[in-house]
Amino acid sequence: MMLDRTRKQKVTILGSTGSVGANTLDVIARHPDRFEVFALTASTKWELLLKQCAEFKPMFAAMVDAEAAAKLAERLKAEGLHTHVLVGTQALCDVAREERVDTVMAAIVGAAGLAPCMAAARAGKRLLLANKEALVIGGDIFMRAVVAGGATLLPIDSEHSAIFQSLPDDRATWGDRIDKIILTASGGPFLNRDVSTYGLITPDEACAHPNWVMGRKISVDSATMMNKALEVIEARYLFGVAPEQIEVVIHPQSIIHSMVQYKDASVVAQLGTPDMRVPIAYGLSYPDRIKSGAASLDFKGLASMTFLEPDLARFPSLQLAWSAMAVPSGTILMNAANEIAVEAFLAGRIRFDQIHTLNAEIVVSLNCPIASSIEEVVIIDGLARQVAQLTCNRLANEK
């Protein structure tokens, strides 16, 4: 879907109260001549959504939680705002596929983002994908929907945006040119922590990322490097490469966001400050470039850039990406288990070091067929969550 530069682009933001959603609104606010917010969505944070509606005046606000939606509607009416409130998960799909919408920012965390992402893809939208789980569990089914719907899929994760920016425009040539994709990882808050103390890590420690400001679930994933495992799987589908063509390197400074090594041994990389507004601005304006609000990279101020091989004893979750891709529906199992495990860790039910134990057990213990439809994805996801909850209960008793 090509941009029509003669009019403002109408944007729906799925998950506007999260960090990516808030950064998207920040970029949009800098370009009122180019973008107009059509709809905003959230799960429960109605107070923040109210503030966003007051500033951006979208036509629709959709909330998953009915009680939160009622409070939002009441306050909008009291303040004389004319945003219409929609309720339920179906409402997210409705504002994603709405014919007046040009661009959909998919910033919902977790498998809950799959259905509205599919709706946007099938409707041929310009889909800015910050929800990596849609590809992790949807895989080829999701990519076929993108093609069938004539959608434009643009990655927003800093790593995948970097890869996209480092590739030639002609996708048909990628297979002939690419040797491998190199995803960079900061190493998170525990890059140098004694592994023997991992069982003592608290949720607040796991959420204290040294470079990026993110939500708690993504922050924990970064601390375990499950976030990078999810990104490996996402890269496999986004760029059509084999699992063995994807490599991960630790780069603590988060200046090089990822790289593409070509068959002639040359490497093309994208660099920048660690600010999500950069890939967001690129996705919103592609193929143009607009001001993002991020600080420019000062090469003279860089003390050094270092690169390390990932320590799989420290980050066993990373290797699980390749293991899951080798198992039928393994990526669905891995993602479902991880969402249950992280939720349990944040609630204090299991230890930090038990997150990987639970994830690995679900991937190897469940024997599921290859999902051939979204309906089958949902069934497998639900089964994995049920077993993961039982496993979590067992691990909680072992704390």
Description:
The chain is built from 16 helices and 11 strands. The protein is α/β, with parallel strands linked by helices and 399 residues long.
- Number of helices, counting only DSSP H or I runs of 4 residues or more: 16
Structural class by secondary-structure content: alpha/beta
* SSE succession: EHEHEHEHEHEHEHHEHHHEEEHHHHH
**Distance, first to last CA:** 51 Å
SS strand fraction: 5-15%
Helical percent range? 40-55%
Taking Cα atoms only, what radius of gyration do you get, to the nearest Å?
Answer: 21 Å
Q: Strand tally, please?
A: 11
Uncertain residue segments: none
Mean pLDDT: 94
Tell me the strand order in the biggest sheet: 4-3-2-1-5-6-7
Key words describing this protein structure:
46% helix, seven-stranded parallel β-sheet, four-stranded mixed β-sheet, alpha/beta, 399 residues, 16 helices
Topology readout:
Blueprint: E1 9-14, H1 19-29, E2 35-42, H2 46-56, E3 60-63, H3 66-78, E4 84-87, H4 89-97, E5 103-106, H5 114-122, E6 126-129, H6 133-149, E7 152-155, H7 158-166, H8 174-177, E8 178-185, H9 203-206, H10 216-224, H11 226-239, E9 246-250, E10 256-262, E11 267-271, H12 277-285, H13 316-325, H14 330-346, H15 354-365, H16 374-397
Parallel strand pairs: 1-2, 1-5, 2-3, 3-4, 5-6, 6-7, 8-9
Antiparallel strand pairs: 8-10, 10-11
Give a brief description.
This protein has 399 residues and is an alpha/beta fold. Helices cover 46% and strands 15% of the residues. 48% of the residues are buried.
